[in-house]
């Protein structure tokens, strides 16, 4: 059958049902396969077979099951088990079922559900096939609609449905009216228009592809009869004008179906469906109403949002000024209200203008020249009548002087240098006693003359005050010689010294280096002995006596004859799936079949062809041409596949499939996550102290080529030679003769073992061949890493909700600097120093049962090498609230955020956890607490040793916190909590039911079951937390964990304390 191309338009719809008031031919399922008017079964396409794709199994209750271990849903082909009915292309119908998953684990190309397609093949035909089709069901571990039009197009996932896992059930339907289709999962609807239709036949039915087993029940195929001839639409009483982003409202729409015999029928709103509604942009939009093969078009208007008000969310950081100060709106946040509250959002400064004393001003140019109070009006540029205002105060105190608190770092200058004020700190003093830091951009400096040698005075001016500091201008002086580039520095016995590549230069005190000619120096190689192992100095002797000689070392070694070994180890590996072959052409084939092994942030499971070198004494360079026969699933990789060259500081036992971790450096195919690009990368893992992964800092990576490695772009079709080198400077990687990428971490593989294990590897899904391997020992001199500018960043680590008025505002910056903090209008800290990477806590008191606004200004220390030296302004609001003066807080499944915490007026669980006081109990009423997001007890939400925080079941009850397969479970990062008598169930796949990341917690008489990974695990919950911060001194008492299962059946599923668990945790 000739494939037809068709165009599709995907639009979100606002209705739920098609067809109800016309006659149908109802075609229920039966185990027949004789003609086109009956249900038929076929298994066809790529990766299918009679063994892997057996016929449906029919049950006494009328349901049937389909089990497929073969097939695929891919971008360019399909292979599936299909139970279907053949229909004319102009049929209008509804296909419906309830499907229950009997076996399904996450993975690409696996799918099940309902499908309509315009071509099928004979049962048993495993040749490649693709055609136009539309389907709804499980794909890419989500429930969604998808279709093929010269390639696979995926519709938005249905957000109201759980991800497909074993045991889940769904209501699925496909409805067709003319060229429009509606797909639905559990009543949530999306629509598709196939503007060119399908072929002259349709095949509608039920399918399963690749590693899935499902049961279909309550299934039917209802074909509409008769077909409507036209639709009459009366929209007089329907809403026809909408705001941007508003939802379609069909109330008042009257639709009448007209048939070819002249009869007509008034339709209910559930009888028809609508496509085409789009309220994202202003203008006219057309919707199309569909029913029983007929359609009608209706135009609607989408209006721009009208601004109706402005509100100040945060005032500027600075509201107190002195005369001649420049206006600074930094920190000001304005919210715009549209259509009387329909939408409220922050508005940027480019859309606003400032008015002072009736004049529009430019903030950076406006100076306050009169003392007293000033009103600053903020107007919308588009509509100046909409405005908001705030007040500033201008003091009449006089500036009495400025003083240098810290001189600039640079005070010595050379010809052609420019003035550099980095590190300069100047303070201004006023007659009222106030001392203020003067920012560098507020100062004016006198010019310097670098052509005149000697001491000079640099004058600094601020307003009417001035001060000065002294600099020295001098001529640069020669310091000596410097090696600019090295020749070969590692030799084998019998080699002669080779000076090629050596370059030397004159080094001056201003750090200039001027290269000299080879005739300007001589090499003294007399100490070199190529016949004996050792380290020998090579002297560079200048021809001019005023310059001292320098030397560098070269190494003579025995030739290394590496002994190559084979091993497979780590999680998910096995000898049937991970293997190495010696090929007749001398190449080495290294294979990890689908799902065999992994490379993660913390541990590996790999096929490894390797040799050993001394971690302390040996450097190396290993390269080879790599043929990639297969790599990663398509179209979606799973983020744990990898191949290439790897060096590691420990290896597991051959055949051991337990978790094994080490520090690594590698180059090759790698993504690091399902949402990351899967190209060729240089990557390292650091911090691993033991083989269970303790201390891991995760993966750092550098992308060298974003293209996914595959047969068409690797050896021999295209040059693809990988090189991994260890030097005294670190680990470097290179593709072909391209630029080397370097991690300047030379000692990362000298932790677990005295050896480095270096070689070629595959993981998860990779089949490669290694050709023309070259391995050599090297000993190049150490090179310092080039300076890289740091992008300044400030983090607020404190909680934004608390029940205690004594509060610590915790800040951390990634660079040195100074922070100024205002709480409301009061100053909390002025130019408080922050050290890069360290947490600083500023103590303050919060207003009780109120919102507390903080304005935080961070000025980076400009002596550092940064991408930006501008002031960073952060606004932060802390809600302080208590309930019931320390008495028990009652929560219930129907509790509200607005509740009072009594039994009669309970709170919701999240609010209670946010605001419980030390020593106070949260009492959970009986019932199911069904959630769609994790339950988080944040870091710093702490009790004390004397006054814990309690989360307990009401006496005589067993409340259940059900995560409904939607999210991670409980994340307990606080300290001194006591949890008693609660069930925690059904976290999403690959997420834990309960993670303890805090200290001194007690989990008692609780149960953890049906979760998507470990039931309860003790491990760090704060990324990057140091070993000292790992969870310790926790007690899990008289609790149960059962029926927990991760989708891949790989991980610990009951209780666990691993990877980043601290000391003295007790079960």
Automatic annotation (TrEMBL):
InterPro entries, sorted: Ig-like_bact, Pectin_lyas_fold, Pectin_lyase_fold/virulence, PelX-like_Ig, PelX-like_N, Polysaccharide_Lyase_9
Compartment(s): Secreted
Source superkingdom: Bacteria
Cofactor(s) required, per the database record: Ca(2+)
Domain Ig-like: 236-300, 409-473, 486-556
Start and end residues of each Pectate disaccharide-lyase-like central Ig-like domain: 795-878
Keywords assigned by UniProt, alphabetized: Calcium, Lyase, Metal-binding, Secreted, Signal
Main location group: secreted
CC terms in the record's Gene Ontology section: extracellular region
Residues annotated as domain Pectate disaccharide-lyase-like N-terminal: 60-124, 589-778
PROSITE patterns membership: PROKAR_LIPOPROTEIN (PS51257)
Family recorded in the similarity comment: Belongs to the polysaccharide lyase 9 family.
Protein name in UniProt: Ig-like domain (Group 3)
Organism: Sediminibacillus halophilus
Taxonomic lineage from the root: Bacteria, Bacillati, Bacillota, Bacilli, Bacillales
């Amino acid at each position: 059958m000739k494939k037809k191309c068709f165009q599709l338009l995907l639009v979100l719809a606002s209705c739920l049902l098609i067809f109800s008031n016309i006659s149908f031919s109802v075609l229920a399922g039966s185990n027949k396969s004789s003609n086109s008017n009956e249900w038929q079964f076929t298994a066809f396409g790529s990766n299918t077979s009679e063994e892997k794709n057996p016929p449906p199994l029919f049950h006494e209750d009328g349901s049937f099951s389909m089990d497929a271990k073969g097939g695929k849903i891919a971008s360019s082909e399909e292979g599936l088990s299909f139970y279907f009915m053949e229909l004319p292309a102009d049929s209008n119908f509804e296909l419906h079922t309830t499907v229950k998953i009997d076996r399904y684990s996450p993975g690409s190309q696996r799918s099940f559900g309902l499908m309509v397609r315009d071509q099928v093949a004979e049962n048993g035909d495993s040749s490649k096939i693709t055609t136009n089709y539309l389907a709804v069901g499980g794909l890419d571990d989500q429930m969604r609609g998808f279709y093929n039009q010269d390639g696979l197009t995926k519709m938005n996932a249905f957000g109201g449905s759980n991800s497909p896992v074993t045991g889940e059930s769904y209501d699925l339907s496909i409805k067709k009216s003319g060229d429009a289709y509606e797909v639905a999962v559990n009543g949530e609807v999306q629509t598709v228009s196939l503007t060119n239709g399908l072929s002259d036949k349709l095949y509608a039915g039920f399918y399963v592809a690749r590693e899935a087993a499902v049961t279909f029940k309550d299934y039917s195929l209802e074909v509409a009869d008769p077909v409507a001839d036209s639709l009459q639409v009366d929209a007089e009483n329907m809403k026809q004008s909408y705001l941007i982003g508003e939802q379609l409202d069909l109330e008042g729409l009257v639709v009448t179906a007209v048939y070819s015999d002249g009869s007509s029928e008034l339709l209910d709103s559930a009888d028809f469906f609508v496509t085409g509604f789009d309220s994202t942009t202003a203008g006219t939009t057309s919707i199309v109403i569909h029913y029983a093969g007929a359609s009608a078009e209706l135009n609607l208007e989408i209006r721009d949002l009208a601004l109706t008000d402005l509100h100040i969310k945060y005032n500027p950081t600075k509201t107190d000024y002195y005369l001649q100060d420049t206006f600074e709106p930094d920190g000001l946040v304005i919210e715009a209200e549209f259509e009387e509250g329909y939408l409220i959002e922050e508005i940027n400064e480019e859309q606003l203008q400032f008015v002072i004393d009736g004049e529009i001003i430019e903030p950076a140019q406006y100076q306050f020249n009169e003392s007293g109070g000033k009103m600053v009006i903020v107007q919308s540029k588009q509509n100046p009548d909409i405005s908001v205002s705030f007040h500033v105060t201008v003091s009449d105190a006089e500036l009495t002087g400025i003083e240098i608190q810290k001189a600039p770092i640079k005070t010595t200058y050379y010809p052609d240098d420019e003035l550099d004020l980095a590190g300069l700190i100047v303070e201004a003093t006023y007659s009222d006693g106030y001392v203020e830091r003067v920012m560098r951009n507020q100062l004016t400096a006198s010019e310097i003359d670098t052509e005149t040698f000697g001491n000079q005075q640099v004058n600094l001016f601020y307003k009417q005050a001035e001060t000065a500091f002294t600099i020295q201008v001098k001529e640069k002086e020669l310091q000596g010689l410097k090696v600019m580039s090295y020749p070969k520095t590692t030799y084998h016995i019998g080699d002669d010294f080779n000076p090629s590549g050596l370059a030397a230069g004159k080094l001056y005190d201003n750090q200039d280096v001027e290269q000299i000619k080879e005739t300007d120096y001589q090499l003294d190689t007399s100490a070199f002995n190529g016949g004996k192992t050792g380290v020998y100095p090579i002297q560079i002797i200048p021809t001019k006596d005023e310059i001292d000689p320098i030397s560098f070392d070269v190494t003579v070694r025995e030739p290394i004859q590496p002994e190559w070994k084979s091993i497979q180890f780590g999680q998910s590996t096995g000898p049937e799936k991970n293997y190495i072959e010696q090929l007749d052409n001398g190449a080495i084939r290294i294979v990890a079949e689908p799902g065999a092994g992994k490379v993660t942030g913390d541990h590996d499971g790999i096929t490894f062809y390797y040799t050993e070198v001394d971690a302390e004494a040996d450097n190396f360079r290993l390269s080879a041409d790599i043929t990639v026969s297969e790599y990663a699933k398509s179209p979606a990789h799973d983020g744990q596949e990898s191949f290439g060259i790897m060096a590691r500081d420990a290896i597991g036992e051959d055949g051991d499939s337990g978790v094994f971790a080490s520090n690594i450096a590698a180059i090759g195919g790698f993504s690091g996550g399902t949402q990351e690009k899967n190209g060729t990368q240089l990557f390292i893992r650091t911090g691993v102290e033991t083989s269970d992964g303790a201390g891991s800092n995760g993966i750092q990576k550098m992308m060298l080529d974003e293209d996914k490695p595959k047969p068409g772009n690797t050896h021999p079709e295209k040059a693809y030679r990988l090189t991994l080198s260890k030097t005294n400077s670190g680990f470097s990687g290179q593709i072909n003769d391209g630029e080397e990428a370097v991690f300047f971490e030379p000692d990362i593989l000298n932790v677990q073992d005295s050896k480095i294990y270096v070689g070629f590897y595959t993981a998860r899904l990779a089949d490669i061949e290694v050709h023309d391997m070259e391995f050599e020992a090297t000993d190049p001199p150490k090179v310092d890493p080039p300076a890289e500018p740091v992008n300044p960043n400030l983090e607020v680590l404190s909680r934004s909700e608390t029940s205690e008025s004594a509060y610590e505002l915790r800040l951390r910056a990634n660079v040195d600097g100074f922070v100024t903090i205002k709480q409301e209008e009061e100053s909390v800290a002025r130019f408080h120093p922050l050290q890069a990477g360290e947490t600083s806590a500023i103590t303050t008191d919060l207003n009780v049962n109120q919102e507390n606004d903080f304005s935080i200004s961070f000025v980076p220390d400009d002596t550092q090498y940064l991408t930006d030296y501008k002031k960073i302004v952060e606004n932060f609001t802390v809600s302080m609230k208590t309930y019931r003066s320390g008495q028990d807080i009652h929560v219930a499944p129907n509790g509200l955020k607005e509740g009072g915490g009594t039994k009669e007026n309970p709170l919701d669980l999240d609010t209670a956890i946010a605001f419980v006081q030390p020593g106070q109990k949260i009492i959970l009423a009986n019932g199911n607490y069904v959630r769609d997001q994790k339950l988080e007890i944040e870091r710093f939400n702490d009790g004390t040793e004397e006054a814990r925080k309690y989360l307990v079941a009401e006496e005589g009850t067993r409340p259940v916190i059900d995560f409904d397969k939607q999210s991670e479970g409980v994340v307990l990062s606080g300290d001194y909590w006591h949890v008693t008598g609660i069930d925690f169930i059904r976290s999403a796949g690959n997420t834990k039911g309960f993670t303890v990341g805090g200290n001194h917690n007690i989990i008692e008489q609780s149960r953890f079951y049906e979760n998507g990974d470990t039931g309860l695990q003790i491990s760090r919950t704060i990324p990057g937390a140091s070993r000292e911060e790992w969870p310790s001194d926790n007690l899990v008492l008289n609790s149960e964990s059962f029926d927990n299962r991760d989708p891949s059946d790989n991980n610990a599923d009951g209780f666990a304390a691993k990877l980043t668990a601290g000391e003295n945790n007790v079960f």
